[in-house]
Specification:
Elements lengths: L5 E5 L5 H10 L12 E6 L2 E14 L2 E9 L8 H15 L14 E6 L3 H5 L3 E4 L7 H18 L3 E6 L1 H15 L1
Parallel strand pairs: 4-5
Antiparallel strand pairs: 1-2, 2-3, 3-4, 5-7, 6-7
């Protein structure tokens, strides 16, 4: 498989069609698709070619990592990992501007097929259940997916929550050992 040189940057208006196409192709949730919330990976020498995308959905009291897709021809090159790292690092570097919710640092959740659990665990996401007192907006998204996933798609959907402290601890250690 050929390695592709790519950059990761904020989506531009002209990326809307490519983002929607990637998401539809992957059969992901197409609700709340606003190009302004996306990061995209694009070929360095062909900046119009979108290889993959990811977004952070922001709700009252909740953030959701969503819509991670890499085009089939570009999988296996670390593009998905790079998109997740960039999204999480951007989140860490962005000053809190959430005046309506007591300036709390809300957790980041995601919903994914159970077979993707190990992929997200490398970024310190941990499985959570309804017993973990999930935010109500996530419960509203999680329950239908949990019930219908096995029936319609023969897959089990799980919810995961980001362990920011563990992520920071590992990345701080990595940065120290690199120097």
């Amino acid at each position: 498989m050929k390695n592709t040189n790519y950059t990761i940057e904020k989506a531009r208006p002209e990326d809307q069609t490519a983002i929607k196409s990637l998401i539809r192709e992957a059969r992901l949730d197409i609700t709340d698709i606003r190009w302004q919330k996306f990061l995209v990976a694009r070929i360095e020498k062909s900046p119009r070619t979108v290889l993959g995308c990811i977004q952070m959905k922001i709700y009252p009291g909740l953030k959701e990592l969503a819509s991670l897709v890499v085009g089939p021809a570009y999988r296996g090159q670390g593009i998905g990992q790079a998109l997740v790292h960039r999204l999480l690092n951007d989140h860490l570097m962005t000053p809190r501007q959430d005046h309506n919710h007591n300036n709390r640092d809300h957790s980041i959740y995601l919903l994914c097929p159970q077979y993707r659990q190990s992929f997200y665990e490398q970024f310190h996401f941990k499985p959570v259940s309804l017993a973990d007192h999930l935010p109500w907006l996530l419960v509203l998204r999680y329950l239908p997916a949990r019930l219908l996933g096995p029936l319609l798609f023969k897959i089990q959907i799980i919810a995961m929550c980001w362990d920011k402290d563990s992520y920071l601890s590992q990345h701080t250690k990595s940065a120290l050992t690199e120097h």
